[in-house]
Amino acid sequence: MKSLLSTILFFLLLSVNGIAQTTPSFPMINSGKLIEEAVKLHDEEKYTEAIEKYLSIPANDTNYAYALSELSLTYLASGDSLKTIETAQKGILTGKEYQLAFYLNLGNAYDLADSLEKSIEAYTKGSEIFPYAHRFYYEMGVAYSKHHNDTAAFRCFTKSVRMNPFHPSSHYQLARLAARNNKFTQALLAYQMFLLLESSSNRSLSALIEIEKIAGGNYEVSMDSIVALPSSPELFSDIEEIIRSKTALNEKYKTNVKLQYLSIVKPLQAMNEMLEYKSSDKDFWMQTYVNLFSALWKQGHFEGEMYHIFTGFTEPAVVKAIKGNKSKVDNMIAFASDFMTKNAPRENLVVNGKEYSLPTQYYNNYYLKSIGEYNKLAKMNTGEWIYFHPNGNIQNHMTYNQKGNLDGEWTYFSPNGSLKKRAMFSDGKLSGVYEAFYANGQLQEKENFVNDEIEGPVEYYFSTGVKNAEVHYKKGKRDGIEKVYYPNTRLRREATSVAGNYEGSYTEYYDNTNLKFVTFFVAGKQNGTQKNYHENGALQSEGKFVNDNQSGPWKYFFSNGKLQKEGTFADGKETGIWIEYFENGKHESETEYTNGAKSGFYKAFDEDGILYCEIQYSANGIKKYKYLDKSGKILSQSELKGNKIEFKSFYADGNPNTEGKFVDGNREGLWIQRYRTGQISNEINFKKDKRHGEAKFYYPNGKMKETVVYEDGNLEGFSQKFYSNGSLKSEGWFAGDERQGIWKSYHINTKISDLDYFLNGNYFGAQESYDVKGRYNYGNAYDMDQLTMYYAGFDTTGKKIFGKDFVKGACDYESFHLNGKINQKTKFVNGRKDGEIVYFYPNGKKNSISHAAFGKLSGKEQVFHYNGTLAWERYYKNGNNDSLETKYDETGKILIQRHYLDDELEGEYTVYHENGKKLREGNYHKGEREGYFINYAMDGITVRCRLKYKDGEIVAYSYLDKSGTYLPDIPVNLKEDKIITYYANGNKSAEINIKNTYYEGKRYYYHPNGKLESDDNFLNDELNDVSMDYYDNGQLRSEEHYANGVFEGTSKYYTDKGILKKQVSYVCDQKQGWQFEYDDLTGKLKKKLFYVNDVPYEL
Known about the structure:
This protein is an alpha+beta fold. It is built from 17 helices and 77 strands. The protein has a 27-stranded antiparallel β-sheet that branches. The protein has an 18-stranded antiparallel β-sheet that branches. Helix 2 runs antiparallel to helix 3 (64-78) and helix 12 packs antiparallel against helix 13. The longest helix is centred in the N-terminal third of the chain and has 18 residues, at 326-343. The two termini are 61 Å apart.
């Protein structure tokens, strides 16, 4: 089996060699390799194994359509017509890239199933799409011949021959057709042509046997089934008489051909010497065969032809004879090839509605390769030329002038048939408009050429149609204003060029229009002051460039404006002392550089200003180092021995941090980093300072967090992420440092949540989402340019309930609830959400309102309770939460107030009891708890305890003594500890168990009167099992069930009189099933809602 493509674009997912790694739960799909292996198995007639490999290639793979085309061919070869039909029909829907093959295989499958009508219908449809493909007519002929409609078969075979005289199979079938209809001369002529074109196959031997039968009078004809094939009755009457009389087999009839198979050679010789070509006779046999073979005879090439048609034989005598007459064979082939190219009768081929009578070339699979005139003498193309991809689609269309230079319009098409490029040439040089296009037909690039050089504005566009950039040129060089834009149409960069070099100011902006940096160029080199800015507009760095190199003093700043780092550059390389600062202004580190490399001493300090690390560098890396505790005592130290040094670092608080080995200044082998508790945080292998091999990352509780594989610093191979309870979170493959192929994500209850597909790190093709019960509920698809192509939603039975196609990234987006009511309404513009985003409850009331500016949330977002009251309110800036965020209960009481900066918790954080009184308050910094957090009793005044945090970890606690004064901070052993605190009245207020920085086991809170307030269970820092809350009278307030930090099961809520007031069912933190609400006084049911995936329905 010959592949449809001699070369294909492999979707490269390279395996990692020689690296131990986690056993993958599913294979990485290297589709190119799989197809190659499957083709080989097909050729070995191991069809079942080949089919298995083809079926393992997912629908999102870039080679999927190609795999389907080969799969349909393998099903056909195996005799499975139904599977061939199913696969070909599926392939036709994938696009235009392999349509020719699919229609051929579909027709062949129907033929195999003895459905002539459907077979012809498939071939006809294919021939309408590819009117220049003779194969459809050939296959029609085979189908008609099989059903003994020889008149129709003859019509199709002759058309195939006229379209492609070099197609052996068409001549072979014509020969068989002529023989069984008692046209022996015509049969011999067609067999002779077949053997001229295909002399060493199994069919070649069959053809020679048939010739021998005909010449020897042993060919049987069923006279009852003969039809009158078109031909002049008297055309070959004399030759026919010689053949049937066996005169040529007489010993007296001589031949110069030195082969023992005279029963074949002599009849053919007799026929050929009697052939007389008449140009005025337009008979098919005359023009197709007599024209050539009479010329071969007259030019003395018959002997060469006879030796050639026996080249498939392995008998020593035949091989010797052929070898001894090689020059005759070669001369005959050269003459025949040239003669057929020039004189073989051809039917004009139709391409894009236009007829062409020009010479043609074909691929090995007899798909058309080119149409056009080649001047052998001048060795150049002339006139109009069309080239075709190996899959049958047009590749190039162009015109050459009499000098052999391109002249006029030139077009290039992708393998799927879409226009990729278009240009104008004048005498071999680009002259006029040049255009490039995306696969969706959108203009990608447009420019004008004058005498092979770009002249004027060059315009670039995104696949949505939005302008990407405009750059001006003069005589092939950038000259003038250059503007580059974001996909949201906002300006990204602005610069000016003169004669190909940037000149003057060069400015870049963030997509929120804030300035990113401004610098200056002189004659194409950066010179002068450059200022870089954070996205919030604050200065990020400032310094000078001299001839493209950073030079002199440079300063770097935090986004809050405080100094982060400062030092000096010389010729673009760090030099002298560089100082990094904490946000409190104290030194974090001091590093000495020489010519861009660390030299001399590096010193690291804690936020209190105390030195805890000192490293001395030489040209070969670390020379020696030491780590100190707060008292100055040495915790670790070592010196370079040869080219190696063992390294063990410590945190500023004296706890072990990292350990490993440097060789020649590079990290080598296994490096281990620990949490402050001593638990391993990660294990990473290095090779010449690059991550290489399997790397493992752990949670503070010691459970696996992530496993990845690196090769020379890039992510390569299978990766898995886990929840803190050990259950799988996601898994998939990396190749070239980017996610590739199938990636699976899971809910914490182990049910599949997402089935995604990636190509070079980007979503590609169909993506699937599943609810917490593992039911497919949403899907969408992305094209090569990251634009959504469609979306669809499904009910709990898998039935589609909504969906819509996108057009170049644009769509009026709507999704619906199970009851048919609107769920979400928004617009997509240029591939992103833009404008108002509104979600609704199934009863038509609003669930939330927000706004997006090109895919990024912007401005106020409000979320509402089912009763219509405000639940959440927050503000976004350029996609980031940047506000005081407030959460309310259904009565309007505040539950939470917290501050965000750039989407991270920053500043005050306050939580309230359900009675509206303060429960807890403290501060966050960069998303982590920092400093003191005070916890209050139900009255919002009485202090329960005070916990001190550093980088999100509890490091100390305290509580009020009887005088109302906080006790000195009591340090917490993060490895394992129990915190017990008391109210000022002496009653116990809290019991908290800590293990490896996590809440672990029981946590009790008490009311000031000594009664239990809450009884919680923690596992891996997450609420687990049952949590019980109590009123200060001892009455149960609530009973909530958790699994791995999320609601799971039935939760119940009571009044202080013990009356059930609410009951809710959860699955993986989502309300599922009935929610009941009861009257606080009577306990009678007053309201019920049925939830599906956290959405309430009134049933």
